User: Fold Beta sliding clamp from Paenibacillus piri.
Amino acid sequence: MKLTILKEYLNDSIQHVSKAISNKTTIPILSGIKIDADANGMTLTASDTDISIQSFIPTELNELSIIELQRKGSVVLSSKFFVEIVRKLPASQVEIEVNDHFQTTIRSGSSEIQLVGLDPEEYPTLPSIEENRRIQLPSDLLKTMIKQTSFAVSTNESTPILTGVLWSAQNGKLKLTGCDRHRLASRETQIDVDPDFQLSNVSISGRTLNELSKILPDQNTLIDVIFAENQVLFQLSSILFYTRILDGTYPDTSKLIPQSYQTELVIHAQQLANAIDRAYLLSREEKTNIVKLIMREDQTIEISSSSSELGKVTEQLDVNSLTGELLRISFNSKYMLDALKVIDSELIHIGFTGAMQPIIIRPEESNNLLQLILPYRTTN
Amino acid sequence: MKLTILKEYLNDSIQHVSKAISNKTTIPILSGIKIDADANGMTLTASDTDISIQSFIPTELNELSIIELQRKGSVVLSSKFFVEIVRKLPASQVEIEVNDHFQTTIRSGSSEIQLVGLDPEEYPTLPSIEENRRIQLPSDLLKTMIKQTSFAVSTNESTPILTGVLWSAQNGKLKLTGCDRHRLASRETQIDVDPDFQLSNVSISGRTLNELSKILPDQNTLIDVIFAENQVLFQLSSILFYTRILDGTYPDTSKLIPQSYQTELVIHAQQLANAIDRAYLLSREEKTNIVKLIMREDQTIEISSSSSELGKVTEQLDVNSLTGELLRISFNSKYMLDALKVIDSELIHIGFTGAMQPIIIRPEESNNLLQLILPYRTTN
Assistant:
């Protein structure tokens, strides 16, 4: 392999694929980035077996020559050092030459770098995905849906399936659900698919989806999502992002969500978040995060937390409406703040079915987003 | 104590003094901030015994009423939680009321906070400083001098005196010196003092000076620096910053600095820094940071580093001038980068007195800044 490439394009591709590299890999070749070059362009691949990312740089783009190929070929370069050095090369052009035994020379301006390359034949091949089930989602919607659900997944590796966000689809609707044993976040959207398109039990690691989010473009381009038996492929314009579907059966969470409420509250989201944030600061010092909500006859609520050592925070808030039984209820303020943070609505609706039943938070004007938190059992 | 104060002023003062609070303090009352209020204004004090910071908020400033005092008094409030909650209070006015047993109530908008206060009588008194020796320095110059020297102090607590920056003065010049066993950084400036003003063996913790730097104003205001027997006081407009002088005798470093050079090099600072940065990236993977500099007859230098596992970086650089014996010399690239980073000059002068002798780096046009690093002993 011998070629010259514009540094900017090489660097962007390296930054994208390097997100798949794990520092903890026990397979030495997976600490490298695989480079393949031919007349069409250059393909970079990185993988930690759970995630694989492939990025393609075309030889020419909109009449701009990006790569000048002199000899095609492949090599695997250790990502340590390579990822950083390319970003810091002095000139806008980078020459890459691979010789016998994969010895690689990189030249740019006054710099010459010799790298010990590895045999690309030893690099695992990427899963082949049959395109049986495919949906399209606008990039910014996909980012938002990931943000609104992935924070709620479990971080406990003893139940791996719950560390994933569940993707389910039926009746032309796609739903993402994140859930640990104390809270649940779900977001639904219409998708343009055949009426009989269904997805069930597709759980994708929340951490992986957050990595994907970082390379999703901000512009409103369409992302193809292709579901195979064990893998999901996210297809951006020049990037392929493969991820494994988590093993196991995702629990049925539908029964957690009440169909009607004993008490309903409509309140200004930001004012509630600010008040709970102050109560959280104190509850955090107690390491419990417990905050108490008390509803009053005069259409106000009181948010409070206390610490025997430090003191007490009390917040009085007006509500827009409060109907049903007046409750006293305690919950994890951190979970409530997480839920409020991803609801992009001026007013929110909170539904209660009793002091020991799940609390349901939604935007006031929409049903496509739902946040659930379980209350704490406290002695008043 | 009972008063109402503008949140913005209270918050600024808290942020300043809280820098003196250590999480590791074993004296419970020192985890608090002392508040004293009288007709003149409010004084906040925090201390970890090494550093003490006092901030004064006047009742009125430029005809703006900042504090409305109803009852004077004092209290100590645990800084945990207090520092953060004040920043997040909902209204621009904050009411503070201290009752029996130092029980403190803070009210702002819809929030009411009860805090357990401590007895201010138990708070240690600040050192009294006799103003025997005082200099004045512009705030931005003091910041620069700290930045140019504090990075070079030792982090090894077994020689506490070397964890400090040495302040010395004679012949109308002030000099700051930071030094560990491998490098030295010094910066000199003219000061306006009596001809017989002298300072020696005043070593102030580098970490403390960096904390001071964060609260020094960016504007070019004059800072008073007052030297007492065991303490130095930095006096900003409304802030007093006390720090302890480190115990012990600072070693004489003057003999380290050669009076003449065997080899002299003038080179573009940024180009050299970029080349060493790339070589550093590789040397860092080897955990040695060793970079080699080879001088050539054709007025170029080669910077290189190598790793048996990863490869080699070679950089060719033109120099502006190179006189004397051609050397091959190895050094710690991280130390060289640290030194180059604080030299604000397009061209730098590097002086050598042999492959095993100190390397001296200065701005080409000035002698007030000097950076010294010891070379590595390497084979070949």
